[in-house]
Design goal:
Blueprint (H helix, E strand, L loop, with lengths): L5 E5 L5 H14 L8 E7 L12 E8 L2 E7 L10 H24 L9 E8 L3 E6 L4 E5 L16 E6 L10 E6 L14
Parallel strand pairs: 1-2
Antiparallel strand pairs: 2-3, 3-4, 5-6, 5-8, 6-7, 8-9
């Protein structure tokens, strides 16, 4: 890396053991993309309450030539995010998929998609949510991107079709259009006409 790894902790104490796990996972990132300029990792506990006392949030920013890739793993409803090691694992697993996908695009190995991307709603919040695509990417969307004012009808697990913006938002890749569908098609299956 051109710039040394940065690890920051917010609203939680620094941990040498967690630092070691993060450094181990950062070292593995080079398997997925050979030239990484910099990596920043932030571990935080966004807010503490009686019901959610230690929900961890991990944000990973990886700078590669001409692009910054961001994974932002919110606690959501997943009980595993009460363990910082599992939260770090999940975030780095997502970053590895993102780097592998980016590497394939750079090499020109990506297959042409037949129609819009598809996925399932992963998490919902009052005005926005996250979708996991069939390719394993996590995509942010705002309620205004859902066509026909259908945001209120979405729930976790709802299959959707989406268009992804070429430029990323501050929370990573962003959907410009989201539409609920009845079922997902397989990645290699062309859309039916008729």
């Amino acid at each position: 890396m051109d710039i040394p790894l940065e690890i920051a902790y917010h609203n939680t104490d620094q941990s040498d053991a967690l630092d070691a796990k993060i450094r181990e996972r950062v070292d593995r990132l080079h398997r997925f993309f050979s030239h990484i300029n910099s990596v920043r990792v932030a571990v935080e506990v966004p807010h503490r309450s009686q019901h959610n006392p230690l929900a961890y949030h991990v944000r990973i920013e990886v700078r590669v030539p001409d692009k910054e890739l961001v994974i932002s793993h919110d606690p959501g409803d997943d009980g595993a995010h009460f363990d910082p090691y599992l939260t770090v694992r999940d975030a780095f697993n997502a970053m590895e998929r993102r780097l592998e996908s980016h590497s394939q695009k750079v090499r020109g190995d990506v297959k042409a998609l037949h129609g819009p991307s598809q996925g399932r709603v992963l998490r919902l919040f009052p005005d926005y949510g996250f979708i996991e695509t069939t390719g394993g990417r996590e995509i942010y969307f705002h309620r205004n991107a859902v066509i026909d004012d259908g945001f209120g009808a979405l729930e976790a697990g709802t299959p959707v079709e989406l268009s992804i913006a070429d430029t990323e938002s501050e929370v990573g890749p962003q959907a410009t259009m989201v539409r609920a569908i009845s079922a997902l098609r397989m990645e290699d299956e062309p859309p039916s006409h008729g």
